[in-house]
Write a structure and sequence with these properties.
Helix content is 30%, strand content 25%. It has one domain: YbaK/aminoacyl-tRNA synthetase-associated domain (YbaK protein, Alpha-Beta Complex), CATH 3.90.960.
């Protein structure tokens, strides 16, 4: 991984240095939402899935954050975004967000120095009192209040939008 990429410790330091409060939970590696449920991590907040997508010509990238139980139709979401969407490949994930499969979360945007990725959050994420995400590693989960997460969104520098899909 690129030396300029944020590790879990650096993500936590970044949050602390920016006066963003969080609670950290350590756990076994989880690669799927189902594995996270079985692990019973204990973090408060909406359980989400994070999908790293791109447009058909790989010009625009999207990080989709949605409730883990929501079935996402890429064609319908693409119509909403006026794009033909497909999953970004692992090379894109590593190069742009500095992440590996299973560790995808909005904190990967700290590694997107060119702000190539637009963050699309399902509106229910905003309606939850707490959110929980990996700090760029799938053996930890950070719990943040909605207010603290809102501070993160302004610091990431990426375009973001809450949508119903």
């Amino acid at each position: 991984m690129d030396v300029n990429k944020q590790t879990p410790i650096e993500v936590k330091d970044y949050l602390l240095n920016n006066a963003i409060a969080f609670k950290a939970f350590k756990h076994k590696p989880v690669f799927t939402c189902e594995e996270a449920k079985q692990e019973k991590i204990g973090a408060k907040g909406i359980e989400v899935k994070n999908l790293f997508l791109k447009d058909k010509k790989s010009r625009r990238f999207y990080l989709i954050v949605a409730p883990e139980e929501l079935a996402i139709d890429l064609k319908s979401l693409g119509l909403l975004l006026d794009e033909k969407l497909k999953f970004a490949n692992e090379a894109n994930l590593v190069e742009i967000l500095g992440l590996t499969p299973g560790a995808v979360s909005p904190f990967g945007l700290l590694n997107d120095h060119q702000n190539q990725v637009k963050l699309i959050l399902h509106k229910s994420v905003a309606e939850s009192d707490y959110v929980q995400f990996h700090p760029n590693l799938n053996t930890q989960t950070l719990e943040l209040t909605q207010g603290e997460f809102a501070k993160c969104l302004s610091l990431f520098g990426n375009e973001f939008e809450y949508l119903e899909f």
